[in-house]
Design goal:
The complex is a heterodimer of chains A (about 280) and B (about 300). Chain A contains twelve helices and no strands. With about 280 residues, chain A is mainly alpha-helical. Chain A has a domain of about 140 residues: Orthogonal Bundle (MetI-like fold). In chain A, α9 crosses α10 and α10 packs antiparallel against α12. Chain A is globular and about 75 Å long. In chain A, about 35% of the residues are buried. Helices cover about 35% and strands about 20% of the residues of chain B. In chain B, the strands form two sheets. Chain B has a seven-stranded mixed beta sheet with strand order 6-7-8-3-9-10-11, with helices on both faces. In chain B, strands 2-1-4-5 form a four-stranded antiparallel beta sheet, with helices on one face. Chain B is globular. Chain B has a single domain, classed as 3-Layer(aba) Sandwich (Rossmann fold). Chain B is of the alpha/beta class and about 300 residues long. In chain B, β4 and β5 form a beta hairpin. Classes of the chains: A mainly alpha (about 280), B alpha/beta (about 300). The complex binds adenosine-5'-diphosphate and magnesium ion (MG). The site of adenosine-5'-diphosphate (ADP) has 12 residues of chain B, from β2 and α1.
């Protein structure tokens, strides 16, 4: 008596089976042990941690997750903060750098998209600056800005600006001529044409750029915080690695994935809301 | 003779030569007028420059030489005085049908309140038969015919002095085309709008217009003839085919498109004909062309033949 399941339910079922199989094999392959977090200072110093530094089984990571997520915002000094606080720091940097980038990329992208002259004039700069790894800016940023926090934000700014700039320019330049003509025949001024016709017409393309940018920014923040240190999820991963707490490392890797997914989902939602069908 | 409401003189469109090629003269020396309240159609083979003429009238394109004077003023750039119904409807796809119309009305009457704008727009949507919630749908959720209706409502709602229509029914099936044509006649007779319309359908042209301009093939296309449609209004599709004038006009048009548009093509205007308006022909008036085969009756068709 097999009931025909909808495609969605089948896919979900298959996902769960795959997950269970994967976790089962993993669990079997790694016999449970005391988690790294429970090592005493002495054990760690005496190298006891080294023996513990093997991949923990999923059950242990699950325990860790329940524990960490039950008290996400505790703060016991610089090296011991809740995962929520660390993620909040990272999100703060990502969003600050990202929105500063949007503030510049979208108007400049508009300008480039509208004016072939500006496009030609700015294109060489964009072509040279765009392929530079955002982390390559870090030393220069640290030297010029003299502040590690601001430098991390700058790195996010510089990595998220390009997809937004290029997509905005592309979206604006490719607005159907017919729609511009509609604006013209209705005697709309430049500003009203920009807001009532070009912006809604280019919005799906612009949002695609914004979605790509937020993805890149979230990738880069982890690396940037590993370099800068202090706070944030990137620093947390690095710090736990130095503590040889692989359970925490894997847990935080998962958290990076989950937050990244949520950011993407949020932008996908906005993207859908500006999408239109021709 | 008084000057017509719209006067087109010496209109020529030339595109500069591409690398290693000749410059392209799409059409040259177009001279014609349009009276206030007149419905004028222009017919010609594809590529002869009809859309270009219309875009110049709309102010979206500029002629190489010549100019257009409307109501005593030279046309320079687009204006709300000239409403355009584009061939592909050109509705803004992210706005509902109603919002597409209010978009135009708001531009025309910035001083109006929201309620006034919506009320006025609804009135025109109703006129084209878009009601009962259809006006809140996006263009993608409307059929081709409904989209074209919205586009017509948008153009009529701004009450322009001149309405320009570029093959407005080209993409519609015959049945839908028929109903919208009927609606267009109805709205046109109620508003006394001046209309300039491009079409490739001779029956549509005869049904709708007072006068039909015929263009020869491009390049060097010319507006060769101005055919007066001597058929009384109101007209309707079912009865017009019983008018004797109907077939005379129709044959004249078909003959032009099939044969003479080609024969006359590419002829550059001689000195003596430069600046001359197209020849006016009235095939609907029997005595003008075929005096011996004049049908009896229908006194209303007899008028001062030109
Ligand atoms: N930008 C352009 N450069 C060169 N030729 C053009 C350009 N735009 C249109 N044309 C030419 O002008 C001619 C007239 O086009 P159009 O006005 O659209 O014709 P129609 O509407 O009568 O079919 C066409 O042959 C087309 O190839
Ligand atoms: Mg055309």
């Amino acid at each position: 008596m097999t009931m025909a399941l909808p495609e969605r339910a089948k896919a979900l079922l298959l996902s769960l089976v795959l997950l269970a199989t994967f976790l089962g094999i993993w669990e079997m392959a790694t016999p449970g042990s005391k988690s790294g977090g429970q090592l005493s200072e002495y054990e760690m110093l005496s190298g006891g941690g080294a023996q513990q530094a093997r991949v923990p089984p999923p059950s242990q990571i699950f325990e860790k997750a329940v524990d960490e997520l039950s008290k996400p915002f505790y703060d016991n000094g610089p090296n011991d903060k809740g995962i929520g606080i660390q993620l909040a720091y990272s999100l703060y940097r990502v969003l600050t750098g990202y929105f500063l980038a949007a503030l510049i990329a979208i108007p400049v992208g508009f300008l480039i998209g509208m004016s072939p002259l500006f496009y030609k004039a700015l294109d060489p700069f964009i072509q040279v600056l765009r392929p530079i790894s955002p982390l390559a800016w870090m030393p220069l940023a640290l030297f010029v800005i003299q502040d590690s926090q601001a430098s991390a934000i700058f790195v996010i700014f510089i990595c998220s600006i390009w997809p937004m700039l290029i997509n905005t320019a592309f979206g604006v330049a490719n607005v159907r001529k017919d729609w511009i003509n509609v604006a013209k025949t209705h005697e709309l001024g430049a500003l009203r044409t920009a807001f009532q016709v070009i912006l809604p017409a280019a919005a799906p393309t612009i949002l695609t750029g914004m979605r790509i940018s937020i993805g890149i920014a979230w990738l880069v923040i982890v690396a940037a915080e590993m370099l800068v240190g202090g706070t944030g999820i990137g620093y947390y991963v690095w710090n736990e690695w130095n503590n040889l707490d692989l359970t925490a490392v894997i847990f935080s890797i998962l958290m990076i994935g989950v937050v990244g997914m949520m950011l993407d989902a949020a932008f996908a939602f906005v993207q859908r809301s500006v999408q239109f069908q021709e | 003779m008084t000057k017509p409401f719209i006067e087109i003189t010496g209109l020529t469109k030339r595109y500069p030569a591409p690398k290693g090629g000749e410059p392209l003269t799409v059409f040259e020396d177009a001279n014609f007028g349009i009276e206030k309240g007149e419905f004028v159609c222009i017919i010609g083979h594809s590529g002869c420059g009809k859309s270009t003429i219309m875009n110049i009238l709309a102010g979206l394109d500029t002629p190489t030489t010549g100019g257009i004077i409307m109501g005593g003023k030279e046309i320079a750039g687009p204006s709300l005085d000239r409403g355009v119904v584009f061939q592909n409807y050109s509705l803004l796809p992210w706005l509902s049908a109603l919002k597409n119309v209010t978009f135009g009305v708001r531009a025309r009457h910035p001083e109006w309140t929201r309620e006034q704008v919506v009320e006025h727009s609804q009135k025109y949507l109703k006129m084209v038969g878009l009601t009962d919630g259809a006006e809140h749908r996006k263009p993608s959720q409307l059929s081709g015919g409904m989209r074209q209706r919205v586009s017509i409502a948008r153009a009529f709602a701004i009450q322009p002095q001149l309405l320009l229509l570029d093959e407005p029914f080209g993409a519609l099936d015959a049945l839908t085309r028929g109903t919208i044509q009927d609606e267009l006649i109805r709205i046109w007779s109620a508003t006394e709008q001046t209309v300039f319309m491009i079409t490739h359908d001779v029956d549509e042209a005869i049904l709708l217009s007072d006068r039909i301009l015929l263009m020869t093939n491009g390049p060097y296309a010319r507006v060769a003839e101005s055919v007066v449609v001597d058929i009384n209004r109101p007209r309707n599709r079912a009865e017009i085919i019983h008018e004797p004038a109907y077939y005379k006009i129709r044959n004249h048009l078909v003959e032009f498109l099939a044969r003479r548009s080609k024969e006359l093509a590419g002829q550059q205007n001689g000195r003596e004909s430069a600046g001359a308006p197209p020849k006016t022909v009235r095939p609907g008036l029997s005595e003008a062309e075929e005096p011996e085969r004049r049908p009896a009756g229908r006194p209303q068709l007899v008028s001062l033949a030109g």
